[in-house]
User: Fold these one by one.
Assistant:
Number 1:
Amino acid sequence: MSESKPPFPPFTADTALAKVRAAEDAWNSRDPERVALGYTEDSQWRNRDVFLTGRAEIVRFLRDKWERELDYRLRKELWAFSGDRIAVRFAYEWHDADGQWYRSHGNENWEFDARGLMRRRYASINDLRITPGERRLHLPEGSSAVV
């Protein structure tokens, strides 16, 4: 298989940060197919209480997620790295169809294969209701489109 996503493990501080930024950019695109390309074909996920295996399940999950979580905007922060693993802290904001805003935050543990594709992703996430005035993450000025 020739598919790969640099940078590759083992990670340094710079390459781990580059991997975090690439993941943040992909997720902020809100394009399930683009996001799924960063994972192995048989990638294993735990997202809250949902367990997924493989890209097809990841794409379905993300499509459903972004149909519910409107105007989604995410920030990730490198927390730790070693060898083929990276840990991140994150926060994202979104609103539901009724206009209620939320800030979701938590931690993710990632494990990569030698080609730089994520083979395991374990996410623990908590949600907090917020008012529009409490938002911290905004789309670029004048944009409500996918970034």
Number 2:
Amino acid sequence: MEHEAHHDHTGHTDHTGHTGHGGHHAGHGDHGAHAGHAGGGASWGTAAKATLHCLTGCAIGEVLGMIIGTALGWGNAPTMALAIALAFFFGYALTLRGVLAAGLDFRSAFKVALAADTLSIAVMEIVDNGVLLLVPGAMDAHLDAPLFWGALAFAFLVAFVVTTPVNKWLIGRGKGHAVVHQYHH
């Protein structure tokens, strides 16, 4: 995962005169404080990019889980459980890939991934699966049905819209994807 895409430094002014930043400019540390200099927390663009990262892992995991569950003839509940588990797996895996590439050991990288992605993935999964449950016929639609793919796309869109403010809030407080930014090259 290219975490550089999560940065939006346009419009930032020189913050070297600020106190209490402990040299975070050199290693891109504590972006929660960095993003909050303007008083509003993280930018919407940064939050949207973090949410898109989360959505990518969730979408890979969910679609794969649904394909596997359908191929094995499982019912809706076990298929959804597998899809959710794989959404978390791939969401964390995308973050791990970038953090490990920055030179962190696996244990430390795993802790960073948990801190960066858990709430974002959880919100996304609750929302998109909730939407799928609410769309009439979506849970019983086959993988080759337009209803399935349309409902899934709609569910991901709603989840993106709901999760973006969550990520904005987290990043603005130095949490969520903000913890990943200090490992950029």
Number 3:
Amino acid sequence: MEDRLALRIQLFRESGQAPQQVTRFVEEELTALAAEGHTVTEGTAGMLTSHLVMALTRLLNGEPIEQFLTDEEVAAELAGHPDAVERARAVSFRAEKELGATLPDSEINFLAMHLAVLRKNAVRRDAS
């Protein structure tokens, strides 16, 4: 994992903002994405990392996660990226199984958007 992205995760853990089980889970997801051929760096996955760490931590702490209705624009964008939606649902399933944290649909959609951007970056890189 890139040093800057690893530092982001380390800061969450060492500052007490996220429990080790959450940061470990996110590290494993990032490693899996890299193994799938994605460029996983601070620049490409920093926001995804923070979003997932914070959402899972809030869930484990019993804090509410605000539900957002997916507007038509987001729904249309996600319809063009079924692989990202499927991957986000798989992450959610694993989070529920391993952490007991059930991501609501709005969080799955946000995660899918991050994954779609990551995949777009990989396609652009491959086309270069």
